[in-house]
Structure formats: structure tokens, C-alpha cells
Amino acid sequence: MAKIVPARSDRDGAACGQHWQKRFLDTLSATSSLDRAATTAGVSIAEACQARRDQPEFARGWLAALADGYLGLELEVVRRLRDGDAKTADGEKFDFPNAIRLLAAHRDHAGRAASQVRDVSAAEVRASIDRKIEDIRRRIARERAAAEGKGE
Q1: What whole-number distance in Å separates Cα of residue 110 and Cα of residue 17?
Q2: Cα(13)–Cα(42) distance, rounded to whole angstroms?
Q3: Alpha helices, DSSP H, located in the chain
Q4: What is the pTM assigned to this prediction?
């Protein structure tokens, strides 16, 4: 397993740089540990939770990271069942019943969460539409430029 290195933090304890959220989400995805993700990112769990409440994009990333963690567990259970690998690295019996219960609970929770649409502000919707329109304009301009270049 890769060594987790905490982010540097300033004297106030806030994460240095603007990439703490990426470090947090990457670690959460890899470890499924909120504590390890916060430590690696150099923030408190409370700060991460506040960012999740305040920033819809970060909240979506958090859910995606958790889904990655559950996918990892699911793949591990399937691999162990296929390979007949019932022992952990330290020789203990792998806890299949609890792993399967956890995956079933996650499936139920994920189904409920998917049915609840997160509120998106009108400004976010407009910004998304504006980005899409600008992308279309750029594509059309490129196609016109290419067509004019071939016509010469």
C-alpha cells in the first residue's frame, strides 16, 4: 500500500495550495477512510464536511470517491470468491458476511440517493448552458475554418 503523506499546512492549520480537495478525494477513493483523507489533505474532517455542504461539485466528488471505495470492496469480494482466497494478509479469515452486508446496504443507500436530485442553483444551470453553447460555437468556427481552408 502506498504511504500517505499529509499535505503541508500553514500556521493556521489550513491546507496550503488550492489542491487539498483533490488530495482528499483521491485518498478517500483509495482508502474509504475519512480520517486518512483529511490527514492527507491537511484539513480537519469538519473543514472537509463544511466544504461538502457548501460546494456542490466537491459533494459530487465525495460521493464518487465513496462509490469507488465500494466498487473496490465489491471487486475484492468477487476476486476472493473466485480465487478461493478466504484469508487476509495477516492470516485471519476474510469477513465475507459483513462485506456482503455492507455492499447490500450501500446498494440500497445509493439507490435512494440517486432518486434524490440535488438542488442546483439557476446560476449553475445558466453557467452550464453558457459553457455548452460556447463549445458549440467553437466547434462550428473550427468546422467553418477547415471548410474554407479546403475550398482554396
Answers
A1: 32
A2: 7
A3: 20-31, 34-41, 45-54, 56-83, 96-115, 122-151
A4: 0.57
